[in-house]
């Protein structure tokens, strides 16, 4: 299984600012994903991070609000732009390979927007 | 679109006893994967067990086993000899079987508390 780290683990931000979350995998993976988990709720997929091309966003999520980069097979970033208190959530990245088709998750980033 | 339903928001069990968490799903796909993940207070999502839909045999991982009923679209998780460390939110998840990998669709979760 892949070992995934995220930075920062938590942050408290002011309304209107942006935060970039980093996700690092210890091995090359085929797929990387970003999820949001709002307080007391389940996980919702934001987008699939594609290496060398634009991310594929789910309904309700747009690139201007959640720009994603994936410059190589082990690293991705998610930016939460122009934040509002409604963006307060846990953001998790996950990764999978063709061989396993199983997604392993990072420890998450707890974001609080004041 | 696939949906996953966990009808038990909360459950509790005494240490060393057995508990079963329920999950049903809806899909028109024939090939897919099903998963149970646990999320303790640390918020780390941890894979518990995985089942391929084409396999009739139920998956087991130590104290964790599933009862997979494909026709009924049911995928329950049984935890035997419950331990305090099993206290967590448990999520059932569905994934279509695609060679390029696919999105996970999660249920709403069941909060399991193991009491001493």
Write down how many β-strands of chain A occur, each being a DSSP E stretch of 2 or more residues. Answer: 11
Largest β sheet strand count, sense and barrel closure of chain B? 6 strands, mixed
Find the biggest chain interface. Answer: A-B, 26 and 23 residues
Alpha-carbon distance between the two ends of chain B: 41 Å
Radius of gyration of chain A: 13 Å
> What would you call the structural class of chain B?
mainly beta
Overall pLDDT level of chain B: 93
Euclidean distance between termini CA atoms of chain A: 36 Å
Give the amount of beta strand of chain A, in percent.
over 45%
Q: What fraction of the residues of chain B are assigned to beta strands by DSSP? A: over 45%
Decide which structural class fits the backbone of chain A: mainly beta
Helix proportion range of chain A: under 10%
- Count up the helices of chain B: 0
Topology diagram in text:
The complex is a heterodimer of chains A (114) and B (116).
Chain A (H helix, E strand, L loop, with lengths): L3 E4 L2 E4 L5 E7 L5 E7 L5 E7 L6 E2 L10 E5 L2 E6 L8 E8 L7 E2 L3 E5 L1
Parallel strand pairs in A: 2-11
Antiparallel strand pairs in A: 1-3, 3-8, 4-5, 4-9, 5-6, 7-8, 9-10, 9-11
Chain B lengths: L2 E3 L4 E5 L4 E3 L2 E3 L5 E8 L6 E7 L7 E2 L2 E6 L4 E6 L8 E9 L7 E3 L3 E6 L1
Parallel strand pairs in B: 2-12
Antiparallel strand pairs in B: 1-4, 3-9, 5-6, 5-10, 7-8, 8-9, 10-11, 10-12
Structure commentary:
The complex is a heterodimer of chains A (114) and B (116). With 114 residues, chain A is mainly β. In chain A, strands 2, 4, 5, 6, 9, 10 and 11 form a 7-stranded mixed β-sheet that branches. Chain A has strands spanning 4-7, 10-13, 19-25, 31-37, 43-49, 56-57, 68-72, 75-80, 89-96, 104-105, 109-113. The model of chain A has no long low-confidence stretch (mean pLDDT 92). The termini of chain A are far apart. Chain A is globular, with a radius of gyration of 13 Å. Chain B is mostly beta strands and 116 residues long. The A-B interface holds A 1, 30-31, 33, 37, 41-45, 48, 58, 90, 92, 94, 96-98, 101-105, 107-108, 110 and B 33, 35, 37, 42-47, 50, 91, 95, 97, 99-104, 106-109.
